[in-house]
Each structure stands twice: as C-alpha cells, then as structure tokens.
Amino acid sequence: EAVAVADGKIAAVGSTEEILDWISEETEVIDLDGKLLMPAFVDSHMHPAMSAVPYFFEIQLRGEFSVEGYLKRIQDFADENPDLEFYSGGGFQRSVFDETGPRKEDLDAIISDKPMALDSVDGHSIWVNSRTLEMAGITKETPDPPGGVIKRDPVSGEPSGLLSESARGAVQDLFPPPKKEQYKQGLLKLQEMLNSVGLTSCHDAIVKYDPDYYNAYEDLAREGLLTVRYRGSWHITPEMVGGGEGQPEDFKPEMTIDEAVKKGVEISKSFKTPYWQVKSFKFFADQVIEEETGYLKETYVHRDDNWRGIRVWKQEAINEAFRLIDAEGFNIHTHQIGDAAAEYALDAIEYAVAENGVRDSRHTLAHVQMIEQKDSERMAELGMTAVIAPYWSVIDDYYWKLYHPYLGADRAYSKQYPAASLIRAGINTAFHSDFYVTDPDYGWALYSAVTRTQPEKIFRMEQGESADSTLRTTDYSVKLDSGQIGPLGPEEECMSIEEAVAAATINGAKADFLEKETGSIEIGKSADIIVVDRNIFKVDIEEVSEMKVLMTFFEGKNVFSAEC
C-alpha cells in the first residue's frame, strides 16, 4: 500500500498505517489516490546516444508509413536547411517498399548535388542518393562486400540506392560522426522521453570506440545530469579485427581481437560513477531477415539460390573473441536473429566457458527471433539471458510483406519470436525496444507480450484512424487473410502479465547485474519507482495498452510528472 524513501533508497514497504510512522515535518507525502506504484522499467538493449542525434536533430522519417510521407519530410527538411554540406537521418520502414527497396532517384529529385544518406529504422540498411554512390565509388561493377548487399535495379543491374549491412561502410565514412557535445545534447533530450515512459535503466548495445561517444555519457554522469542509469557493450566487428566469414585472407584489420578486448577493458576502468559503466562486448552473429541477411538453417523460400543469409563470423574467430572476453570477466552481448546464428553463437559461448570455467557470466542473446528448442535449453544451462522485443511478436505489415514470403507460412507463423517457452526453459528473459527501432512504450510492450497482437492504438497509427476494424483481430481461432493484423503463433508463447512485468523490470536488472540495486520495490534498493494510471494486474488486457506513466522517480527524485 505504501513505500517510504530516504536518501534515495527504499526505506520501508508496507501498509499505509505502517508507513505513517515514517512521516515527520520534513517528509514529503505523495497521495497516489489508489494509483499503481511499481518498479521503474529497464530496457536491456537500445541505442541511446547513437539514436538521439538523428532522432532529434536530423531528417526524421519515423511516424510516416508511406513513400509519399517520407519524401515530404525529406523535402521539408531540405527546404528548411538549404546550406548543409550533407544530409543524414533516417527512420524508414523497410516494409513500405518492394523487395528492391527505396530508390536513389526519389532522393535525387530532392537533393542531387550533395550527399544524402538515411538509415532504416532498424539500422541495417541505408538509403542514399546518386551523389553519395558516386562519392563512395559504388557502381554497377562494384561487388557485394563480405557480409553486405548492394541492392540493384532488377533490370539494369545498377545500384538502386539501398545498401545493407557491411555495404553501408563506404558510405558512412563520407559522413562525419557527431561530436561529444552533440551526443550530450541528444542524451539530455532523450532522457526526458525515457523518464516519461518510466525508464530509469538502459543498456547501450553499441558503444563505439570513439572518445566523443563514450565520454558524452561519462561527462554527463560526472556532472550529475543523468536521470537514467546506463550500462553498455563495446562493439567489435570483423572490419575492426578480422575473422569475418568471407573476408579475404589478406585482409588487414585495424587491430587484433586481443587488442580490441584489452582496449575496451582499459577504457572501462576510467568510468567512475554508477550511472555509466561498460562491462560487456557486443557482436553480431547475423543481421536481419527483412534484408535477407538473417542466418537461417533453412533457405529463404522466395529465392532460388539456396540462400540462407549472412553468417558474420568464422567459428574459430568468434570462439577466440568470446574466450578472451569471458576470461576478463566481461559479459558477451550477441545480436542473434536466425536459428543458425543462435547455434554457432552458442557454440562459441560453450567454447569460452569450457576454456575458462563456469562463472556467473550472464551472457546474452539479443532479439532471439528464431531459435531451436535444443538451443534454448543450452542457453538455460549456460545461465544466459534472452533479450526480446514483444513489440515485434505480432502479425503486422512486416509479417505479410517480408517474413511470410521470405520464411514461408509455417516458419513465419510458428517459429518466430519465442517468449513464454524461453521462460519455461529457465532462461532469464528481459525486454528491449532496440530504440530507435521502436519507441519504448510499456503499455504496448506488456500488451503485445500477453496477446502477441498489435495494440489498437498502433494499428490506428500505422493504418490510419479510418482503417476498417475488421482488419485487426486478437482471436487465435480466426484464420487471417494476407494483410490482416492479428496474433502471432503459437498461442503457447503468450506471457502472463506477471511474467511480462518481470521481463520489463527485475529481469532486465539481472541481465546487467543490477538486481541488488534496482528492478523491484524492496528495502535497501534504489528508489527507482513509477506511478501508473491503472492497475495493470487487474484491468482487462485491452486497457493495459493504454497505460500511462504519471510519475517517475530515480533514486527517490521525481524526474517526470505528467500534466494532469
């Protein structure tokens, strides 16, 4: 019924009468009028600094769901900023376009004499104009790089304007990265949004080896300006250290894997506050199914070349990398989409544990879009965490335009985004938004975790307020036609509301070894708590998606209050 907070910690939990004994003349008393008090949320995989700059200061395509809408936003930004030397930003949905993807000609019609590059909302592809391709030296004769795809016009064979995975590298080098002050400004604006949805702890899943990047966090932490507790993972790629599948034998990396690990470990020692710590390393085992780069055990059914996607690392290279990281006592945080990616990533984790011995390592697979049961069991045996996004475990436009045709009906419907089965296997299962892939919204997350269906409010946002209600159902007994919005199978993967709340709070804290500090309302823990407008454990599930955060407290300080 009530909680007492003192010196930023939870001092007492009990009935209203019991907590009344804590009240003195100096005590601030907040009457919640029956509203629900619960732990603040934890996002176990997102990209705060990387996303904040384009989200707030560059071309922003999020919230639009048509090519026409994208082009209008781009044109408006260009008109408002005619003197820029280059144009960047992003947020486009891959499902808006056909298989070839967005076209350079559409951007050329707006800006043709300066480079323009726009990231997809998931960050796995980039849409560029002809000037950018020219500056990068990408032509019809340019081969796909190892681990990447240059999308081409199906008739002419010319680059069409979409570059996926490692093919983005040549283009990204043309655009200078943000400076530290830009990152800091972005993080300060972003934390207002994060606090407003009840977030006080987040994991940055790609920490760059860039002093401007990591010191933006460190500066804000030392200045006492952070109202979010951040943990992070150093990002290591084959382009940095070699060892990539398909890389030329004579490839010259920037450094060895041993040097990269030692560099990350040493820099981490310089972070002196509890608000910014990097105790993990990030690897990509594969990429994403929507770009045909997720690494699968069976082929992509719409292709006739036995294509199974992209495997990022050679086994011996990732084995050695994971061994070195595990030996340092750091966590391994692996992007894993396809079932084949899960298998070889877990082989590498097992190798590291066999070499170094068992410890409480809590290594992580992030996304876990497809995984075989035997590999789920291996995760449990290894004491791992699965970080999943309930936002995506639905039948929506992505499903019909990309997953259904690429995977086939059975795999698309019944083999994607396990949830409850991970919990049953004994895996610590936590939620993430992958911002800025998805804006964190815990009414949405909890609703979709329990129903595996897109909430009505998201359906209306994407399809329009006047969309036919019969296009959406939450009923598993209804056989869906192409284009209909509904629940993703199997129904046994639906979580309970209690399991979903745990995944959004204490399980996320456990993933980053923070369960003694935050994630639940217990005496001695940080007073990271929120007030929401309804009792999500008692109301109908349809009401959960409309949940609003009214107040957010971080270490006992009120860092967000909704306008009433």
TrEMBL record:
The record ties this protein, via Gene3D superfamilies, to: 3.10.310.70, Metal-dependent hydrolases, Urease, subunit C, domain 1
Top-level taxon? Bacteria
Citing just one GO molecular function, the answer is: hydrolase activity, acting on carbon-nitrogen (but not peptide) bonds
Q: Report domain Amidohydrolase positions.
A: 28-560
Pfam families linked? Amidohydro_3
- PANTHER family, alphabetically? IMIDAZOLONEPROPIONASE, PROTEIN LONG AFTER FAR-RED 3
Q: Please state what the protein is called.
A: Amidohydrolase
Which organism is the protein's source? Candidatus Thalassospirochaeta sargassi
